[in-house]
Design a protein that fits this description.
Elements lengths: L14 H20 L8 H19 L9 H18 L4 H24 L6 H22 L29 H22 L7 H14 L7 H22 L6 H24 L1 H9 L4 H12 L11 H4 L17 H33 L5 H20 L9 H15 L29 H40 L4 H11 L6 H9 L8 H14 L4 H13 L3 H11 L13 H19 L2 H18 L20 H20 L26
């Protein structure tokens, strides 16, 4: 009996393809409620993504057909490789891990979008959006129900306790919840409108879309006031384009679109000539000091314009100049953040990718060989990409696992090949289309081997990263359980100290210090953990300040001085409301001077106390705000004991001046071979 030859099928429409797509959909929906930009919370999702990639590689090697990737897809994947390498060589270890995890998400979901675009029906995409919207609504209700509100789901955006202490929404932050609800609801409505069907089958989708939009108004965010008009205007324009390319009568659609544009033009003209109300309200609101943050990030980015500082650069490079009560966790503008973190090269690549996919979308819409269902899918993907790109101007949508997956999947859908008649640019029949459409082709054997090798490499990367992050991921759950069960501060500190060597994050240092015992603290253990965090993230100057205070508490004033000189930039940063750098330095100098008085070295003591006096006169003895997460040795206005200590310092300084010993300024020289001299010398003039 002759063996029948194996008939290869397209992976996108086979049972394994449906299984892989279902797993990715579940991971995406789950990521909405359980993952943010913190690397260790991505651990279980990296396992799932690794499994999907391995299964896809096996299917490809078994002979399943996969679509030949177009040039735009190869360019995008190569760009992802650039971001991966740049993230790996960033200065902040934990920020590097976070961005690498997000880039892995983008790789997998981009290819998923390319392959799923080959399916003949888009009903699966609408179903996923519907399920995700339903889960979001349920989750928002769950968080606001005091009887069953979840205390912890594995997130650490603000502290180890997690953002559920504020119960803001599914996407960790209320703006993201509102964005998803409004966007998914709008896409469902536009899908039903563009398909042109009016029957009972479209009723559930329309009802769910309206419900999602209504629910977005309960997310306590103004973002939807920007998103919904954008969905309306862009949707109308795309609808008009669809009608033009489908050779159907425009009728009342053209009239309605004209009225809409005319109204917008009249409002804009009135605002420009007479009103200025809209622009004034926009600039006066400055939600969360976005304009101020953008100014500081822009100034920082100009110091490393080409390559950027690496992940976290937009935050840690402005820490010494941003004079507000709290450091912004992100730039709240992905384009500025991309410039600061990945340089002009990274920003230019990102903008090029976005533009190429938008052009690709319009080429698809202009093709007369595109099916009606595919035309709707491309339009929905284009609309989704446009809203996400506009929202990225005022928020950090690319730093959320669910939203970067949505953006990557959308771009992949737009890049997915389609049969079209190519335009001949370099022949006599220029601008004329061929009669025979070029069909969508499958990848050859060589390309399949390359894709499989790349998939296995990506899998190894995800498994390695998840292996590093597994311990802190589990430790966070254990820490929350310890808090809920009333464990002692000492036990919680010991648990935190075990996490730091694996996951040296500044938030853990904050929590670690805040649980310092008031009687007999173990400063040696504190120092060990703080040094580990600072070595892994050398520009997190908050940690340097805490470490210097920790050494001061151990009467190791020279070692504290070395920390100040090693990590503080330039001649020392000015005091600000984030951290009173100069005040900490003044305090250490005073304590060192008092120590030299006890040793009988009056010349060195007089030099130090004079230096500290001049510095304090310029910057103030006491900071304007408490140091974030630090050992609170200085508070606004000072405590009674601190005021008494300052009075004692002034008396000692007056006595030394009366004695007038020869001053010894040798302490101001560098303490190490390649070190800096005493800081804040500009205040001594």
């Amino acid at each position: 009996m002759t063996k029948q030859p194996h008939v290869s099928r397209r992976l996108a429409e086979s049972r394994p393809g449906y299984i892989l797509g279902g797993i990715l959909a579940v991971l995406w929906i789950t990521a909405m409620s359980a993952a943010d930009s913190n690397a260790c919370t991505l651990t279980p999702f990296l396992w799932g993504l690794a499994g999907v990639v391995v299964m896809a590689a096996i299917c490809i090697l078994m002979g399943y057909k996969v679509v030949r990737l177009p040039l735009i897809a190869w360019v995008s994947l190569a760009a992802g490789g650039y971001y991966l390498v740049r993230a790996y060589h960033g200065f902040s270890l934990t920020d590097n891990w976070a961005d690498i995890g997000l880039i892995c998400f983008a790789f997998v979901y981009y290819l998923a979008g390319v392959y799923s675009g080959q399916r003949m029906s888009s009903r699966g995409c609408a179903l996923i959006l519907g399920i995700a919207a339903a889960i979001n609504i349920f989750y928002l209700w769950l968080l606001r129900n005091p009887d069953i509100s979840l205390h912890w789901v594995g997130r650490t955006d603000v502290s180890l306790i997690g953002t559920n202490t504020r119960n803001v929404g599914l996407f960790v932050y209320k703006n993201f919840a509102g964005l998803f609800l409004a966007l998914s609801g709008g896409l469902l409505l536009w899908r039903n409108i563009w398909r042109g069907k009016r029957n009972l089958t479209t009723l559930p989708g329309s009802a769910l879309g309206v419900g999602a939009i209504v629910a977005s108004f309960f997310c306590d965010t103004r973002a939807i006031l920007f998103i919904l008009p954008l969905l309306l205007i862009c949707g109308w324009i795309l609808w008009l384009i669809l009608k033009i390319f489908s050779d159907k009568g425009l009728g009342w659609i053209m009239i309605a679109t004209g009225v809409l544009m005319l109204t917008g033009a009249m409002i804009t003209g009135y605002e420009f000539l007479f009103g200025d109300t809209l622009l004034k309200s926009i600039f006066d609101s400055d939600s969360h000091l976005r304009f101020l943050v953008w100014e500081h990030v822009n100034n920082a980015a100009t110091r490393a314009p080409l390559w950027g500082f690496g992940p976290g650069g937009s935050t840690w490079e402005i820490v010494t100049t941003y004079n507000e009560w709290q450091l912004p966790n992100y730039a709240h503008n992905e384009y500025l953040q991309m410039w600061a973190d990945y340089g002009l090269i990274g920003l230019g690549i990102m903008l090029l990718i976005i533009v190429l996919h938008i052009v690709r979308a319009f080429l698809a819409l202009a093709s007369d060989s595109l099916s009606a269902e595919r035309r709707v899918s491309v339009s929905l993907a284009l609309l989704c990409l446009g809203v996400l790109c506009c929202t990225a101007i005022t928020d950090y949508v690319w730093h959320n696992a669910a939203l970067i997956s949505m953006g990557a999947f959308t771009c992949g859908t737009l890049a997915s090949p389609f049969p079209r008649r190519p335009i001949r640019l370099f022949s006599r029949c220029k601008w004329r289309e061929c009669d025979k459409p070029v069909p969508v082709k499958a990848e050859g054997r060589c390309a399949k081997v390359i894709l499989s090798a790349a998939a296995l490499t990506l899998t190894a990367l995800m498994l390695q990263l998840s292996g590093i992050l597994y311990r802190p991921f589990i430790a966070q759950w254990q820490y929350d359980a310890m808090i809920a069960r009333g464990y002692s501060a000492e036990q919680c500190r010991a648990h935190l100290l075990s996490i730091i060597p694996v996951f040296p994050h500044s938030k853990i240092a904050d929590e670690f210090i805040l649980r310092a015992p008031t009687t007999t603290p173990d400063w040696t253990e504190y120092e060990k953990g703080l040094r580990h965090i600072l070595e892994a993230n050398p520009r997190q100057l908050f940690t340097a300040s805490i470490l210097a205070q920790c050494l001061t508490r151990q009467y190791r004033f020279d070692d504290a001085e070395k920390v100040f000189r090693q990590y503080y930039p330039g001649d020392g940063p000015d005091n600000n409301r984030l951290s009173p750098w100069a005040t900490f330095y003044t305090a250490n100098l005073q304590l060192r001077g008092m120590q030299h008085i006890e040793k009988g070295d009056l010349g060195t003591a007089l030099s130090m106390l004079n230096y500290a006096e001049n510095l304090a006169r310029k910057t103030g003895y006491f900071p304007n705000a408490q140091h974030r997460g630090g050992i609170r040795s200085w508070v606004p206005g000072g405590t009674d004991s601190q005021r008494m200590y300052q009075k004692s310092c002034r008396i000692d300084l007056t006595t030394l001046r009366a004695i007038d010993p020869p001053q010894n300024h040798s302490w101001q020289q560098p303490l190490t071979a390649d070190g800096k001299p005493a800081l804040y010398s500009r205040y001594q003039k």
